[in-house]
Inverse folding.
């Protein structure tokens, strides 16, 4: 294997904390109950009526508590709740895999106190205006009511009035693998609302619980939505969510080092808006941040070998490549049609060598003068390691936690310095 020496001077590093909104909800259960009451759901749950509560595959803070509150609300109003995995093709596109994904988030039959019904064969319910076939989870479709629970936030693949949220869960998540494939094939931004309009007429929607997280990924808003208002109200919530999305503190970088990627951090493994790369044909690349070299070092074990998004990186490690389960990744990659995101970049023996390769491919820029940021993952970027060149640019707008962080590696040459 080709090896890279670290025969250069690393830049001085600083540990900083960005100034981000940390306002959060304190009583999630009460908020869920109050919100569902506010749209009259208490009067719509029939005695012993089976109500499907939808849960997805995203790493949403407190999702177990929010789903449990929705389940308890149904119980307390005489219904019989059950949980439906609404995550398209995730979890290896198997019923068992999707149950396992939910378990990782603390959503299990034992903890929730109700059944989880997972099935990958949806029912076909019609055709959208643009010709896209519309599929729907058969267990949810056959229920007496559906409560859709999802976070509202900017999507990593497209720009639209409705991006990630309850509407997308209705069209893609509840569509299972067939629905996810159809939505991507016909274009997500256009097809998601058109698909929802079909299911709105046929599926027994009861309510939506739209979640917005603050800038440090804590629960900021929970809003109950009436089904007929999903599109309009979610579009308003998306504008609020955009204001909460954290960004890197500079617009131009020589190197961004992401220590870990995975599906729990973003549907694309890394947040495309954070790294400034989308790689979707027909969608313009973000103007910022402009990153010369993006190095991704690790794949979370909780991603089960799915490294979709690794194609956004310039460099990675041999150990990450060895962890890739190509079947699991391609099951997720193929429906999106964005094949570039599954390409394996240049990879090196260790994390230390991968970082060295990033520095050595900066051209005339001296490593000790490079603008560098290290983050644990792209979901949690309130605390960062930044090089001296970056710190000089942002020092008046951040909190300094440590002014002399050493570049340290263990016996396997894995990075040990923490953000």
């Amino acid at each position: 294997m080709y090896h890279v020496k670290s025969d250069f001077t690393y830049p001085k590093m600083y540990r900083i904390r960005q100034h981000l909104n940390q306002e959060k909800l304190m009583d999630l259960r009460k908020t869920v109950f109050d919100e569902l009451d506010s749209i009259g759901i208490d009067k719509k749950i029939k005695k012993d009526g089976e109500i499907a509560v939808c849960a997805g595959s995203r790493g949403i803070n407190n999702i177990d508590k929010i789903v449990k509150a929705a389940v308890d609300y149904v119980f307390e109003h005489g219904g019989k709740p059950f949980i439906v995995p609404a995550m398209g093709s995730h979890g290896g596109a198997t019923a068992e895999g999707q149950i396992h994904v939910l378990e990782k988030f603390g959503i299990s039959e034992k903890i929730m106190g109700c059944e989880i019904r997972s099935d990958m064969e949806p029912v076909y319910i019609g055709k959208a205006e643009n010709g896209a076939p519309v599929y729907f989870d058969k267990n949810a479709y056959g229920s007496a009511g559906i409560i859709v629970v999802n976070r509202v936030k900017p999507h990593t693949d497209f720009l639209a009035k409705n991006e990630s949220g309850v509407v997308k869960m209705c069209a893609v998540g509840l569509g299972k693998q067939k629905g996810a494939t159809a939505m991507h094939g016909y274009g997500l931004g256009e097809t998601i609302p058109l698909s929802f309009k079909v299911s709105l007429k046929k599926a027994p929607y009861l309510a939506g619980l739209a979640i917005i997280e603050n800038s440090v990924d804590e629960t900021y808003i929970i809003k109950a939505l009436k089904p007929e208002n999903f599109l309009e109200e979610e579009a308003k919530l998306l504008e609020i969510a955009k204001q909460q999305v954290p960004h890197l503190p500079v617009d131009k970088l020589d190197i961004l080092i992401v220590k870990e990627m995975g599906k729990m951090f973003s549907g694309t493994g890394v947040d495309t808006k954070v790294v400034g790369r989308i790689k979707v044909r027909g969608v313009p690349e973000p103007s910022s941040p402009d990153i010369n070299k993006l190095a991704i070092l690790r794949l979370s074990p909780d991603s089960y070998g799915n490294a979709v998004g690794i194609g956004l990186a310039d460099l990675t490690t041999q150990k990450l490549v060895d962890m890739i389960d190509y079947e699991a990744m391609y099951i997720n990659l193929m429906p999106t049609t964005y094949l570039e995101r599954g390409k394996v970049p240049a990879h090196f023996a260790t994390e230390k060598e991968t970082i060295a390769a990033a520095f050595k491919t900066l051209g005339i820029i001296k490593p000790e003068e490079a603008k560098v940021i290290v983050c644990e993952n792209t979901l949690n970027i309130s605390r960062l390691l930044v090089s001296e060149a970056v710190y000089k640019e942002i020092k008046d707008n951040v909190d300094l936690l440590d002014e002399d962080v050493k570049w340290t590696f263990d016996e396997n040459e894995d990075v040990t310095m923490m953000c």
Q: What stands out?
A: The chain has two domains: 13-20+247-405, 28-244. Residues 188-202 form the longest helix (15 residues). The chain has a mean pLDDT of 95.
